[in-house]
Write a structure and sequence with these properties.
The chain is an alpha/beta fold and about 350 residues long. It has 2 domains: about 140 residues, 2-Layer Sandwich (Nucleotidyltransferase, domain 5); about 170 residues, ATPase, nucleotide binding domain (Nucleotidyltransferase, domain 5, 2-Layer Sandwich), CATH 3.30.420. Helix content is about 40%, strand content about 20%. Strand 7 and strand 8 form a beta hairpin. The structure holds 5'-O-[(R)-(carboxyoxy)(hydroxy)phosphoryl]adenosine.
Length: about 350
Amino acid sequence: MSITVLGIESSCDDTSAAVIRDGVMLSNVIASQAVHEAFGGVVPELASRAHQQNIIPVVSEAIRRAGIDKTSIDALAFTRGPGLMGSLLVGTSFAKGFASALDIPLIDVNHLQAHVMAHFIQVEGEENRQPAFPFICLLVSGGNSQIIRVDSYNHMEVLGQTIDDAAGEAFDKCAKVMGLGYPGGPVVDRLAKEGNPQAFHLSKPHIPGYDYSFSGLKTSFLYLLRDELKKNPEFIEQRKNDLCASLQTTIVEILMDKLRSVVKDTGIREVAVAGGVSANSAVRAAFQDHAARYGWNIYLPRFSFTTDNAAMVAITGYYKYQDKDFCSIDLPPFARVAL
Ligand code: KG4
């Protein structure tokens, strides 16, 4: 029997809806919110208002592009959390109303699990190499930096995570002090291509186990700018590319050092990466390098599945549907929820 799932994602500042049929993506529509650029970060109140404006057109467009009628949707999967409460409420409330109107089951999805599950989305005409269980997934985004052991679609264990900032935050906050706009991660990536990654030495954390920390790096970067700007007010402008290259290299080294330890200790060489920062070219190059050097089987997501999207929510819903893992209509969203 064919199964069609509509996915809805509204955890942060992207309103997205997607249709997945039997594991194959039929549509994935994302409306991003430019309104936050002027503020140098996501403004929660503005995000929820924008979701409210976007949600109906985005869902209609996802159904239209999928070439289906809404009566052929078998289940509705929505992001329950973690995320911004005002944003989550828009997607959750819409999902409940729509599922009730269509009289179909509702499936709650953990946003972090969905990022990992993006590796199982099949796209017509594209090769889909899926990681074999168990595999290790580095989840790196604006809100999370975690190393996850994935034993099955519905069994994942966090082995390590950041104790302060996420990797994406480190990119964005350092970019902000250089006046590079928001989100700064992609700009740092672009400028770093023209810079020397060894130009500046930035501090790396020394914390035990598999956990991450990025706040020390951020402070070290800030102090470097403060000290150099005293000597030369044009420092940032003149050394922007070298600063970006050094910052990016340090972040990637921090990420890969811990990941290498996990792979060594667990003996699992199936290694995937997910989340917004997995779009970063140095992260991708480091994965390729580790594949060649240590024999890892690596899985890099398609670029459109790195940042927040509903296709990853729909694919998670598709697998939960097969387990009849449905939720009740009175389930509230969660701003903070573990994997
Ligand atoms: O997964 P995501 O869309 O959602 C959040 O958790 O917010 O990740 C967004 C993060 C931002 O911090 C952004 O700067 C970062 O991913 N990012 C990048 C790149 N593309 C997006 N960071 C570094 N290099 C990139 N190319």
